[in-house]
Amino acid sequence: MTSAQTDTDPAQVNAASHVLSVDAMGGDKGPATVVAGLSKFLGKNPDAKVIVHGPEAELKPLISKHNIGDRVTIHDAADVVKMTDKPKVAFRKGATTSMWSAIEAVRSGAASVCVSCGNTGALMLMSTIRLRKTDGVNRPAIACLWPSRNPSGFNVMLDAGADISADQDDLLTYALMGASYARNGLDIDRPRVGLLNVGTEDHKGRAELKVANELIANAADSGDFDYVGFIEGGDLPSDKIDVIVTDGFTGNVALKTGEGTASLISELLRSALLRNPLSILGALLARGSLRRLRKRIDPRRVNGGVFLGLNQTVIKSHGSADATGVAAALHLAYRLGQGGFSDKLAARVASAASLAQDGPQHIETGSLSTNTDK
Amino acid sequence: MTSAQTDTDPAQVNAASHVLSVDAMGGDKGPATVVAGLSKFLGKNPDAKVIVHGPEAELKPLISKHNIGDRVTIHDAADVVKMTDKPKVAFRKGATTSMWSAIEAVRSGAASVCVSCGNTGALMLMSTIRLRKTDGVNRPAIACLWPSRNPSGFNVMLDAGADISADQDDLLTYALMGASYARNGLDIDRPRVGLLNVGTEDHKGRAELKVANELIANAADSGDFDYVGFIEGGDLPSDKIDVIVTDGFTGNVALKTGEGTASLISELLRSALLRNPLSILGALLARGSLRRLRKRIDPRRVNGGVFLGLNQTVIKSHGSADATGVAAALHLAYRLGQGGFSDKLAARVASAASLAQDGPQHIETGSLSTNTDK
């Protein structure tokens, strides 16, 4: 049973689904940026409420400046987890930090989803210990959005770096969780899942990938997704998949490689266009289109690494996110919170685990699970 | 002893350093493209000679069309390794294939470096069995060039996919081989080497990375390179390193992710600029600058994955390379062949291995090795 089920009655859960818990501290740009993002978000979502966590004396003036005091509750927390703190050091700082306080608010059922710009490792450790792993999940994962040629503009990739390794069973769990996230976060009824490898032929790759390849194929029907098999690094932005499954080491390197390549190219594009008067004029004429392109691949629009496999949902917003980026993470959080995402995901994983225990003859009739997740 | 040392006298080696061995078959665009690339290359290198391998009846007319018959020798080979052949199947086709014949010409000392556009897996298997691994190398690697902010425009990354795993000793060997390649292929006297990981702190990453981190740091002085420690995916195009060391699984995913990201962005840029008349005009005005940018990140300019750790050098040209791409791979091959690269690399690896056997007190005085490699 999830702790949401044990700790709260249905009315409370319903109420809390409109409430987000936000750690105002720990981002590179400080609490003023987080509160500005909060204000943007609240402006577009009239029913939403937020609990913010941090030093009250610092937060109060920021919040009254934006005139959002009636929809924001402050939970005073004096300490801050620093970006440079090792996860265990951060954990020992414990209950007095804004990060801990933000996690506690979803643990108690007061809010539905927790959002923080802080230290990823510390947030994952604290969340895992305080919220605990969903039954059937051995390694929680971080899911990120990857700019793609799909109509939504994005694919889901996991694990983006929660854990440095994953065995075949973890990869299967990632496929189930990633499909559930694509359904609830990107509105894709039957997501197409691919497993990242160094080639698409069945004989390619490490031993655990070959086993995972079969496990995920067998789980596709009961998990309500299509499995497209092995994919390669060049397929990450492809429109033939929606969800990319990989271990956290490979996923983290791929994510940062993609970001690094994009930033190299835009730097080179900029300096190419500034090279002579003719191309400066050209760039001026094309600036509307170039701005649209920049927006299309803007990392702020894809802000929000979602921790999957815990009893409640936690979203890591980018440390250097500005107000637009923070608002994007809050929109995602609100959407997932209102849809009851963490319970749906838990039901998906539990149903796959029970199907596996029942043996293969039950897999084909596993349509029961379709009622548990949209 | 390398087979070059056993099979040939010094006069012959000298003669062969001007000769390349080229597999004309197996590329996606056929032998006409390879011969066109050959002609480009020979036009710029008046002392170079080439042995081409493939069906004589098909190659002869192509070569006389380009009027390069006096500097090209044809080795007739009736069979072709297909892109879809599994490596073992290709190997069993054996001696009648153009790929095998191209490798034999460097094995016998008739040519200095072998170049093929064919099937990578087959080329690696055939090369490893026929040319054998350099003493002290357990896993040969493929080194590729990565567009970067460095003055040369490129960094070296290895392994780009020769092997799906690498232990700490392999990673140390990759560091030595990559540094030697950067010195000889990119003219960098004292290359800066980084080890790819999911963070830059010493406690990050898998166990073998932590051990490799120490091994490579200890080998830096005797290997004549600087070790910058762990780097992340975002650092691949960085100007703080010249050589990126990683296992072939991660390297292959990173390489293809970078290519995929670059191709998504140029696609989006193109469609953004074609969106309205104003930006079409802008793009026309800036087209000189945009063309220069395209050239800067053109994969054809970085054509040539170099197999490191065999007794002779083999270069894999991209299967879809056009004449410009083939010529780029031949230029690289010629440069490495003339510099006696494979012997220098072998001496580097052997010297590191003997230093390790002699124990740490010899590492600091290991300046002997500087005579073996430029």
Describe this protein with a few key phrases:
homodimer; 374 residues; alpha/beta; Isopropylmalate Dehydrogenase; 48% helix; 14% strand; lipid biosynthesis (chains A, B); Phosphate acyltransferase (chains A, B)
Describe the model.
The structure is a homodimer of 374-residue chains. Chain A is α/β, with parallel strands linked by helices and 374 residues long. The first copy, chain A, has two domains: 1-137 and 309-339, 3-Layer(aba) Sandwich (Isopropylmalate Dehydrogenase), CATH 3.40.718.10; 138-249 and 297-302 and 340-374, Isopropylmalate Dehydrogenase (3-Layer(aba) Sandwich). Helix content of chain A is 48%, strand content 14%. In chain A, α9 (207-219) links the parallel β7 and β8 (226-231). The model of chain A is unreliable at 1-13 and 359-373 (pLDDT under 50). Chains A, B: Belongs to the PlsX family. Chains A, B: GO terms for molecular function: phosphate:acyl-[acyl carrier protein] acyltransferase activity. Chains A, B: This is Phosphate acyltransferase. Chains A, B: Pathway: Lipid metabolism; phospholipid metabolism. Chains A, B: Its EC number is 2.3.1.274.
